[in-house]
Design a protein that fits this description.
about 200 residues, five-stranded mixed beta barrel, about 30% strand, 8 strands, alpha/beta
Length: about 200
């Protein structure tokens, strides 16, 4: 029940953050905070992150460095793109303002595929390692997952996130299961005690 209350409060916090206007991006933002960053995209140093199948189409997330004045480059996950595509990928020129949520680095797993720095293909979001492979001396130690504007067409590429991430909340089901098992055990014990008493 404590976990249920905690997860419910977390989901309410995420919903409130999503509905609120973005905050200016600071140097040490809280993970999964909705923020806005300004700069210009460096399309010459794009990379691909992960592998994801959507429907029957194989693709990955497009990472593009955002060059910011007086701040290190910021790796922006602009959204999913198919490996083989006929539709163009939007690449706005000049100064841009990107709204999204802060993504912390991933912990490396022994089960994750090995990165391919030369091919700019990465499977673990490690900003320092990715930034170094792309030729940057330093990048922000976190990333930004871009959120699609409300009026963005569904088929637009990159296919940016539409909402902040939402963890599952199965704890009510867990509570019902465990309390149900406890009640069943009490019933079994009562039946056993009555039979022993009758004997």
């Amino acid at each position: 029940m404590q976990r249920l209350a905690w997860k419910t409060e977390l989901l309410e916090h995420l919903a409130a953050a999503e509905a609120a206007p973005p905050r200016p991006l600071g140097s040490e933002p809280v993970p999964y905070t909705k923020v806005e960053a300004t700069g210009r995209f460096d399309y010459a140093h794009e990379a691909m992150l992960g592998v994801e199948v959507r429907g029957t189409v194989l693709g990955a997330h497009l990472l593009t460095p955002l060059l910011r004045p007086e701040a290190p480059p910021l790796l922006v996950d602009r959204g999913w793109v198919p490996f083989e595509r006929s539709a163009p990928v939007a690449r706005p020129e000049g100064a841009v303002a990107v709204t999204g949520y802060v993504r912390p680095p991933d912990s490396r797993s022994i089960f994750a595929p090995s990165d391919d720095p030369a091919g700019r293909r990465f499977y673990t979001f490690d900003p320092a390692a990715i930034g170094s492979a792309l030729g940057f001396d330093r990048v922000a130690p976190f990333g930004l997952v871009a959120l699609a504007p409300a009026d963005a067409p569904p088929a637009a590429l990159p296919a940016a996130a539409r909402s902040l991430p939402r963890p599952n909340n199965p704890h009510l089901g867990y509570a019902i299961t465990w309390y149900g098992l406890a009640a069943a055990l009490v019933g079994v014990f009562i039946a056993f005690a009555r039979r022993r008493g009758a004997g």
